[in-house]
Write a structure and sequence with these properties.
heterotrimer; A mainly alpha (about 350); B mainly alpha (about 100); C mainly alpha (about 170); A: about 350 residues; mainly alpha; two-stranded antiparallel sheet; 2 strands; B: about 100 residues; Helix Hairpins; 3 helices; about 80% helix
Chain lengths: ~350, ~100, ~170
Amino acid sequence: MSLTPLQQEIAISALKVLVIFGALMSLFSGMTYIERRVLAFMQFRLGPNRTGPFGILQPVADGIKLFFKEEVIPAGANKLLFVAAPALAVVTAFLAVAVVPYGGTIHIKGRPILLQISDLEVGVLYLFAISSLGVYGIVMAGWAANNKYTLIGGLRSSAQMFSYELALGLSFVTLIMVAGSFRIRDIVDSQAGWIWHWNAIRQLPAFAVFLVAATAEVNRTPFDLPEAETELVAGFHTEYSSMRFALLQMAEYINMITASAVGANLFLGGWHFGLPGVPSSPLWFIGKMLAFLFFFIWLRGTVPRFRYDQLMHFGWKVLVPVAMAWIFVAAALVLWRQA
Amino acid sequence: MSPTLIQHALLLSLALFAIGVVGVFLRRNVITVFMCIELMLNAGNLAFIAFSRAWGNLEGQVLVFFVLTVAAAEAAVGLAIIISIHRHKDTLDVDAFNLMKW
Amino acid sequence: MSIALFQAILFYVFGALALGAALVMVAQRNPTYSAFALIVTLVSLSAVFGLLGSPFIAALQIIVYAGAIMVLFLFVLMLLNVRTEVRAPGEGRVFKLVAIGFGALLVGEIGSVLVAARPALAGGFDASARQVARLLFETQYLYVFEATSILILASLVGAIALAKRDPSP
């Protein structure tokens, strides 16, 4: 090619961004349909099955409906922040995907290409940072609508998010200790080999803390009090309609997909299969990510919601001590194995 | 990365610090004054990082680490004080916090 | 078009963004807008830190400053229901000019030193988390680290004690 090496790098990165963006958008629209169907089957009813064969065109119908709905901005709402909040939520949701790897290294024309948009040296810290920024979209949305229910919903949701972020970060500490690096790729590669090398089995308490904390981070049941339909009207997104509501929903689903991808990478071995002979491939990663997504939907269909004080109690007084105790134990084990 | 870039980083740090100083003088809302103080702390952090890059000395990074932590602690206590004063005076105007004036 | 040029362009873009957001923060009458402007400044400064070869501190800046301290500020602003600052007309114009004058004097003094300086540029700069951690935990900074943890505990207890409502008898 007649492009300089720098231009080739930029072109490859742009291609990766387009591919991942397209995959995320299709997965998002697929998820809206799959969630309703799977949830319905769990509740012994059929989900949407009228639009198209087996209801497959339901996301399209939803999109068209939302597109044509009237955009209402409540009187007395802070227009600038009201419009900016969904945009901020979506931007932070998509930013987190930039460091998630989905495969090993492939070689095209002798040139190694990492299956990851950006292999940051501080990958796990970047994920933590972006999830910290994700709080702002919600708090802005709750405050800007000039409605006491949305304000309470927004404040509760952001308090919940940064409380469980602490437990989430602490659960990552042991993975970083064992792998010896902040790079997500290194943590995945430390789980190569047999299935009992996976961090879900080797570091079970960290995995348990991660499951709970990730569910709380993405505001899913049983931690979805801030946006529950039966409490607080609809929480922080009560006043949003049409496209802005769609953006907030998209932000939530993309957060869920990112949490599943990160869980699949950091705890379930990523693109490694679990048997030494089988070659690693992005297909195993996608399978594990879909398993996590199914787990989130399963939780929603099974478990009742936490009350807000129970939620905060659980985050601070149960998860954080458990995570910290596991850090001590894991550090002792690492030192013992080194000696 | 060139030495001019480091010089411009230091000039940026100076500009941010000066903006923070002017903000502390001019603003009447005590929380905004507090935010201008945080801006000054960040300008100092930028200067530390720039010098650490210039001299290859990692102690600048360690100092920024501590400034970050101490700023967090200070923000928590400062905001708690502001909340408790607001409970009594029901205003956030800096000119109203004059009980200790003689 | 080389990597160095690309880095320089990014540095100027984020530097201008940080400066502009700081000016918005100081000039804005509504404290909530000021808080969001400060968040923009903090995130742009984090990008500048990354460009200056410190990825660890850049990530920490967002996690601690933009992600925790500013959330605290926003909570206080929203819970105290702060209104837009009302400026008494015509008052304090002289004060404003004097303040801006002092700011300009500060910039002039330090700026004259900086412009004449020629900072070096160290080669082989490695500010990865591992190196910073080595400095933090293997030298005398370990004592400072432990003292900081006690400081945070003290400020935690202090903030809760100060902000608590007195339970009415």
